[in-house]
Structures are given as C-alpha cells and as structure tokens.
C-alpha cells in the first residue's frame, strides 16, 4: 500500500539490485567458546554504558542468533552465525564503544568489539561480503498541490 501511495503521489519509480556489501561471520575461536549454558529463566539482554567510552551487554538465556541482532547494530554490519552453537547462554561482554578495529585503544582498559568477543566469549568476527537487496530510485517528482 505504501509503495502504491508513493508511486501515485511522487511518481516514484524504483528497482531492486543485488549488491555485495561488507558483513561479518561469527565463528568459534580455535580454543572453543567461552559461554555458559543457561540455567533457565526469562530471555533478556540488558545494555548499559561502561564509563564514558564503553558498552556492556548482559545476556540471560539467549541464543547466539538472538544476540547477533543487537551486536550487528554496534558492529555497523550484519553478522551471520557460523558458530554452529544451538544452545541458550548467559554471558556478559564489555567493549570500547565506536572502536571497530581489531586493535585496542592505548590507555583504555576496554578492548575493541572484535577483541572483546574473542577474549570474553571465545568467538571471532571474520570480515566477509554478503549479498544485499538494495533499492535504487529511478525517478521521483515533487508532489503537486492538494
């Protein structure tokens, strides 16, 4: 309905294009995951600031797929689960906000997100490319007066 409205009101014309864009695969470190199987309870993920420069997620009874949805926001890319882990887990992960490189910031006690996942959870982000359905605007007009 919305597409029809936009096409009618703005004479909007679009088309879809598949493009390869950056993403991450989440994999298990060689030493194995450092995750605690849940003791049960309600599924929850709490976010909180750590000082002025860090972030923390406390997860209870969550699957890896569930956690990846939130972590994708902080990674600024989609994360695809390649761990093979199917259980429910409790964990806490803390990292330096807005630092996506694999290296840490000197003087900070918090690691960058990729390093935090490796050190604290035994998981690793691997850069990859993934297909995305993107929308391209071909034509749009200013709407006429009502």
Helix-strand makeup class? alpha+beta
Taking the sheet with the most strands, its summary is:
4 strands, antiparallel
Number of helices: 3
Strand content: 35-45%
How far apart lie the N and C ends?
Answer: 20 Å
Record field, number of beta strands: 7
* Overall number of structural domains: 1
**Rg computed from alpha carbons, rounded to a whole number of angstroms:** 20 Å
Topology as a string of helices (H) and strands (E): HEEEEHEEHE
Instruction: Categorize the overall geometry.
Output: elongated
Side by side, the strands of the main sheet go 2-6-4-3
Q: Give the uncertain stretches in residue-range form.
A: none
Q: Bin the helical content.
A: 10-25%
Name the average pLDDT: 89
Give a written overview of the molecule.
The chain is of the alpha+beta class and 146 residues long. It has one domain. It is 21% helix and 42% strand. It is built from three helices and seven strands; from the N terminus they run αββββαββαβ. The strands form two sheets. A four-stranded antiparallel sheet has the order 2-6-4-3. The model has no long low-confidence stretch (mean pLDDT 89).
């Amino acid at each position: 309905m919305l597409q029809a409205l936009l096409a009618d009101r703005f004479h909007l014309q679009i088309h879809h294009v598949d493009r390869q864009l950056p993403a991450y695969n989440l994999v298990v470190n060689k030493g194995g995951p450092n995750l605690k199987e849940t003791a049960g309870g309600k599924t929850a993920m709490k976010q909180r600031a750590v000082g002025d420069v860090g972030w923390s997620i406390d997860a209870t009874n969550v699957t890896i797929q569930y956690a990846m949805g939130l972590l994708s926001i902080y990674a600024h890319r989609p994360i695809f689960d390649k761990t093979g882990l199917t259980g429910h887990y409790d964990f806490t992960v803390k990292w330096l906000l807005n630092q996506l490189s694999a290296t840490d910031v000197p003087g900070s006690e918090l690691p960058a997100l990729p390093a935090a996942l490796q050190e604290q959870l035994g998981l690793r982000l691997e850069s990859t490319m993934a297909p995305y359905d993107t929308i391209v605007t071909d034509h749009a007009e200013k709407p006429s007066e009502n």
